[in-house]
Write a structure and sequence with these properties.
This protein is an alpha/beta fold. The protein is built from nine helices and ten strands.
């Protein structure tokens, strides 16, 4: 995936975002770039915004994921999708159309965000689905034929029942396979895939156990976390009790959350699991 360039605007966003949807837009211009849009939305009160802008060569982030961008509020939540439960992504126009390169770059960004926040492919939607606006307009012709193609390409290796992220690093893949095995062992997760790649079922189950792992909780999953934390230098060998989510382990998790800009409460939400699954 292209690197994400952060150009966070002080304007046009609100505090708070409980991410359930990824909402797709196009910019509506004839020809533009991600940088030009990021600069524009950093330049003053525009009464609109999005989290990300994507073009052929770059991805710019303008609003923090944890804040609500002003991108689909025109629907007033009538269809269950709002600024406060979604990430908005704008695809830039290449001259009357969205180029295939921009589409590919966008697909990679969407897959990354799906993995990070546990968003299913069914919740990757159009601005149209939030408000009935004709957006992304450049994907709407012929009864949304290009949008259907976008979703089909997204589903190719990224659907509810199949692969979200193919893990290339052999060591990390082995670690994730052990995590998946332990999820079946400890929580009867009944995962169909335990090969170390990241599937929607893995994310769904991690999301469900995130609040279970509190202080005093005992499981092989906790030992897995402790070993990762020790490997990264957050925990010292002999300072914690194996398999117990004890005070040293809790403090190590909060230190990791602080360093990775996650909520620093020791709760293992998907935002925190994403650090362990991607490193």
């Amino acid at each position: 995936m292209l690197p994400i360039t952060r150009k966070i605007s002080p304007y046009n966003h609100s505090a708070g975002n409980s991410i359930k949807f990824i909402v797709m837009h196009d910019t509506g211009n004839y020809k533009d770039t991600a940088l030009a849009n990021a600069t524009y939305f950093n330049g003053g009160d525009r009464q609109a915004s999005a989290h990300y802008f994507v073009d052929d060569t770059s991805i710019y982030q303008v609003v923090e994921d944890s804040n609500a961008a002003w991108h689909c509020g025109d629907g007033h939540g009538a269809y269950g999708i709002s600024n406060y439960n979604s990430i908005g992504i704008e695809m830039c126009n290449s001259g009357g159309y969205i180029s295939d390169t921009t589409i590919n770059n966008t697909l990679e960004l969407v897959r990354s965000l799906m993995s990070k926040y546990g968003v299913s492919i069914n919740n990757v939607v159009r601005h149209y689905d939030a408000s009935r606006k004709d957006c992304p307009h450049n994907l709407s012709a012929n009864n949304w034929a290009k949008w259907n193609d976008f979703k089909a390409r997204l589903a190719n290796g990224s659907s509810v029942d199949s692969l979200i992220t193919e893990v290339k690093n052999a060591k990390l893949k082995s670690q994730i396979a052990a995590l998946q095995y332990n999820m079946n062992l400890d929580y009867n997760a009944k995962l169909q895939h335990t090969d170390g790649n990241i599937y929607q079922e893995t994310l769904d189950n991690l999301k469900s156990i995130g609040n279970i792992i509190a202080k005093g909780h005992k499981s092989h999953i906790v030992l897995w976390l402790q070993q990762k934390l020790e490997m990264w230098g957050y925990l010292k060998k002999g300072s914690y009790t194996d398999m117990i989510y004890d005070e040293p382990t809790f403090q190590a998790v909060t230190e990791l959350q602080k360093r990775w800009e996650r909520p620093t409460d020791g709760v293992l939400r998907l935002e925190t699991w994403s650090v362990f699954l991607n490193n």
